[in-house]
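Can't attach files on this board, so I'm pasting raw text. These are the components:
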Amino acid sequence: MTQSLQLFTSSAISLPKHSISKPFSSTAAFRFPFSFSKSSIRASSSDLNPLSSSSTSQVLVSENGSSSGGGVVSSSATREFVSVASDSTSIDVDAVTEAELKENGFRSTRRTKLVCTIGPASCGFEQLEALAVGGMNVARINMCHGTRDWHRTVIERVRRLNDEKGYAVAIMMDTEGSEIHMGDLGGASSAKAEDGEIWTFSVRAFDSTLPERTINVNYEGFAEDVRVGDDLLVDGGMVRFEVIEKIGPDVKCLCTDPGLLLPRANLTFWRDGHLVRERNAMLPTISSKDWLDIDFGIAEGVDFLAISFVKSAEVIKHLKSYIAARSRGSDISIIAKIESLDSLKNLEEIILASDGAMVARGDLGAQIPLEQVPSVQQKVVQLCRQLNKPVIVASQLLESMIEYPTPTRAEVADVSEAVRQRSDALMLSGESAMGQYPDKALAVLRSVSLRIEKWWRDEKRHEPMELPEVGSSFSDSILEEICNSAAKMANNLEVDAIFVYTTSGHMASLLSRCRPDCPIFAFTSTTSVRRRLNLQWGLIPFRLSFSDDMENNLNKTFLLLKARNLIKSGDLVIAVSDMLQSIQVMNVP
Ligand SMILES: Nc1ncnc2c1ncn2[C@@H]1O[C@H](COP(=O)(O)OP(=O)(O)O)[C@@H](O)[C@H]1O
Ligand SMILES: C=C(OP(=O)(O)O)C(=O)O
Ligand SMILES: [K+]
Ligand SMILES: [Mg+2]
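---
Top answer:
Structure tokens for the assembled complex are below.
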């Protein structure tokens, strides 16, 4: 028998979510928090349980696995499956998810999502496919690098991969931002700066080839703002120069820490041990080039826009209204990159205004002392979970794998820490964009994630986190309480999976936020929502057309997933949906 627990508002009829606009006194007896134990779950009765109608009781089985009527899937249900499977409403699940589910079983699928930056080492169709096979959930293109045509080609290839092979790889476009950085190195992929060499940093435009030991700087005020004696740090200290002379637009610098200069590397200048922020602090977060790139991203229908060097919530709000006006209907999630002093000052309001955040440790480590980066990372990851926003930990996770086929022990420990903090996603940058071993680096993220997740689950080491209410309306509160309770029940009953039927994806996020022990199968009818859910912890997103009739939805899902051997009879699942205020516990028939 299926067991269900429902919230009722004014009658014993489940109301659609939008029909609840104010608290009803009659709900009091059913308001959460409930204390759950096996015995406190109300068994279904015909007037309460939407799954108990006679037409489908034959496909539902009791908790102990025995069937409640006929034992096998009825012929009517089989007919339904045939009609479902043969029309366009069949379920969309990609080959990798399918393989992972079969290989590891429900409970051991990977919960941490993986983002790969695409570059010359990974932009071919076969290379992209290899990354998808290896578990890439999101492909990132960094608008600092590459041409418009190159970006368009990568987007087309990822789309083709999704269309032809059933993947749901989302596309994230990352803006250049207007911080100070070097120009291209006249086509060279890198340049070596040796100790004691004199290099010229110039704001002049060089039309053809760059003179030797000359670096172009993108910020016009550079030559005026630096002073003799300042330290000039490339990429937060990978290479260090001291300013020794200013000659008009040219600044002569002595190399004091040698190293490799990479095209378009970030530049900061320091005076008396402090980051200098003069007129450069006034540079807009979104430059005019960024706006053109954003228009391009909207036109291409990218799933995520990552905004570099966010300083305040205002810029995010402005961008959101710009996108809403520009892209009627389509929905692009905005990821705020936390990588500057200002972003730390206004952290909470920035995260609240955004749809997610990235701990962009590369530039962050150039703006705050390196030893502060770990605590900032932990703080941002926790805050994002509390505010129900997905969070990505990025940069240098496996930096040595740009050149070597195995990571350092320290890198594995760093990845483990991000997984243990239960960030939604980990990101590869140079490792997948221009390194020697993109697939191997991805495989390391995958295996370390799986191992650490399992270790902490088995040891029950995760401390419960206080999850404040994030919604503002009463119906929001109901959804949150249902999700919190469903996740708690899932842990206590040790269910195999939570099923969530969600139109916007919001309810899937709320479940993901609880970080339950079991995976969350998220069913949504929109392909773009499915792609966006691919960034969030523990969600296995499926595309499936579903109706307001949960009984139908469940039958259809069981049949479709069973037909593909993704679930089996007897698996224990909890089902919730954003159409019906109920939590159902059942065994797969
Ligand atoms: N589209 C691209 N074309 C060429 N090189 C790229 C591209 N994307 C990334 N890269 C290379 O990969 C490196 C790491 O990528 P990423 O971390 O995104 O950029 P950055 O180092 O500028 O912050 C870049 O420094 C660059 O050398
Ligand atoms: C991810 C980052 O941003 P980008 O690679 O665009 O500099 C970072 O700074 O860590
Ligand atoms: K960028
Ligand atoms: Mg950055």
